[in-house]
Design brief:
Blueprint (H helix, E strand, L loop, with lengths): L2 H14 L2 H15 L12 H14 L8 H20 L10 H4 L3 H25 L7 H16 L19 H4 L2 H17 L17 H23 L4 E11 L13 H12 L15 E3 L13 H10 L5 E8 L13 E7 L5 E6 L13 H6 L29 E5 L18 E6 L9 H16 L3 E5 L4 E4 L5 E5 L5 E8 L6 H5 L2 H23 L1
Length: about 525
């Protein structure tokens, strides 16, 4: 049997499947699709799995209500298959305090994917509403899933983790297209390109040339690769004069970070490790102009502990600045008791003075606060960080001034996964610092995916990204996404690096999601007009 015949037979089998077989096909295709994400980056697998999405929607036409419910159900199963293996690592967080949270682990590992799969279901349903019988249905699917993925990044504070567009971020040359159209533009291209082999089963009747769509998809990949390689060649790595970074990765067990009794141990480790020589010529922290510690670095309120602040002042040489995560108590009148706190970043001078503070704006649901906090606490629930009342969100996104260095945009933890998490265009920073604690998620795929997403922010904005992670992966990333230096997952150590220079604002930095929105609108307009013309002809 020829390859074309095998493909046609496979496509027809999916189209004609129903019931549990149809669900199993969608589930398996979604699970295999997760291999396109970090750390596997096996994106060619999508040429096998994304056509299944097209065939599932083709087959939904046999159902009632124009096949919309059947398409939505197939989309939900595909999404469930995609998100469970892609997000399994969330379960590790519930084992940090197993006696309290382990019973919730199955609900998180299956419940969150089941919720996120609703957005995939919506994308399938919307595609079915505007479905056509020719290759233009690829555009219908690409536009619909781009809209649903964008919604996933917005609704209920949003969680755009492992959006389909990340499949086109490795190799690095392909990722450069994000400088033009951002993550959502890459998502549109990912679906349209990888789903294109589905139309090869359409046949050559009525003047159809089904090979045109996959050939165009391959040309698009080639064009992206050429553009990316040219862009990389035109922007060789340069550095900011006089700025030397030292990133400290302590690799502390998560339970030690919220235990006040561990205060002395944590401080000793931070101070000793920060001053560790990194080579024969190294003199420790005195080589650095900026020392960076990870998110929520201490199991206590840093500025309330005079001895800890004195130890930091002793550590820092004159002219050295510390950027560190820390839990911050709210500013209240003396004697007023507080329970809630901020997840913050401090900039501290060599004399122990606090120069600037940023409070995390985008808090993690169930991790840093509970939806309907008061009501759920009365029922006995508590968020993973166990801060009564939940953390207090910051008020605005802004850059921070750093002495003798460019202004920096602070992002804490998963704030780096949101393409729009950037200061206003009239407050453009010279670099981005991302302090995180991926220790919640153990040695898993989660930290690799987090790094992948932070790297795309660098490419989108044309800004270097510096990551300090408790257990890794800490890294210095240049504005084109090249990783200048890194400390791997589960490693204790220090990372010394210069600070890459920013490049002029990219098209995405200037226009945001407008180019992607134009692409989606144009595709929807084309498909709907084509559908209307075919129905009236």
């Amino acid at each position: 049997m020829k390859l074309a015949d095998k493909l046609r037979a496979a496509g027809l089998a999916v189209i004609l499947s129903w019931g549990w077989k149809r669900a199993a096909v969608a589930l398996a295709a979604g699970a295999l699709s997760s291999l396109a994400m970090a750390p596997f980056n096996a994106w060619p697998v999508l040429f096998l799995t994304f056509p299944v999405m097209v065939w599932l929607i083709d087959g939904a036409g046999a159902g009632g209500l124009r096949g919309v419910p059947a398409a939505a159900m197939a989309g939900w199963w595909f999404g469930l298959g995609y998100f469970v293996p892609g997000l399994y690592w969330i379960g590790y967080a519930f084992l940090v305090d197993a006696p309290t949270f382990a019973w919730l682990m199955p609900f998180a590992v299956l419940g969150l994917p089941a919720y996120l799969a609703l957005f995939t279901a919506f994308g399938f349903a919307l595609a079915r509403l505007i479905w056509t019988r020719d290759a233009s249905r690829l555009l219908a699917l690409a536009a619909s899933l781009t809209l649903s993925e964008w919604l996933r990044g917005q609704v209920l504070t949003g969680f755009p983790w492992n959006a389909f567009g990340y499949a086109l971020t490795e190799p690095l040359a392909l990722a450069q297209t994000a400088s033009l159209i951002g993550l959502w533009g890459l998502t549109f291209l990912s679906v349209a390109i990888f789903a294109s082999p589905a139309v090869l089963i359409d046949g050559n009747s009525r003047g159809r040339k089904p090979w045109i769509a996959p050939a165009t998809a391959l040309l698009a990949l080639l064009a992206m690769g050429i553009f990316g390689n040219v862009r990389l060649a035109l922007h060789p790595a340069t550095t900011v004069a006089g700025v030397k970074l030292r990133i400290m990765q302590p690799n502390l067990a998560q339970d030690a970070r919220f235990n006040y009794s561990a205060k002395a141990e944590v401080m000793r480790k931070y101070l000793t490790l920060s001053d560790r020589a990194s080579g024969p010529q190294s003199t420790g922290v005195r080589d650095a102009s900026i020392l960076i510690w990870p998110e929520s670095a201490f199991p206590f309120f840093l500025t309330h502990e005079a001895d800890a602040m004195a130890q930091i002042a002793d550590l820092l040489a004159k002219g050295t600045i510390l950027i560190t995560g820390a839990v911050r108590a709210p500013d209240l009148p003396p004697g007023v008791r507080f329970t809630r706190a901020y997840n913050s970043i401090y900039v501290i001078d060599h004399d122990g003075s606090v120069l600037s503070v940023y409070d995390k704006l985008h808090l993690v649901p169930f991790g840093e606060y509970l939806p309907f906090q008061d009501w759920m606490e009365k029922l006995g629930f508590v968020q993973l960080t166990k801060v009564q009342g939940g953390f207090i969100p910051g008020t605005r996104r802004r850059t921070m001034a750093i002495p003798n260095a460019p202004r920096v945009l602070p992002l804490i933890c998963y704030e780096a996964i949101f393409p729009g998490s950037i200061a206003s265009r009239d407050d453009r920073p010279g670099w981005i610092v991302n302090l995180t604690n991926d220790g919640w998620f153990g040695i898993s795929t989660g930290p690799h995916q987090h790094l992948q997403q932070a790297r795309l922010r660098a490419i989108e904005q044309g800004l270097p990204v510096v990551r300090a992670a408790n257990t890794g992966i800490s890294a210095v990333i240049d504005p084109l996404g090249r990783i200048v230096a890194r400390l791997d997952l589960g490693v204790e150590g220090v990372l010394d690096s210069s600070l890459p220079s920013a490049i002029p604002p990219t098209m995405y930095a200037r226009a945001g999601d407008i180019p992607a929105a134009i692409i989606v609108f144009a595709a929807l307009t084309f498909v709907i007009r084509r559908r209307v013309v075919r129905r009236t002809s």
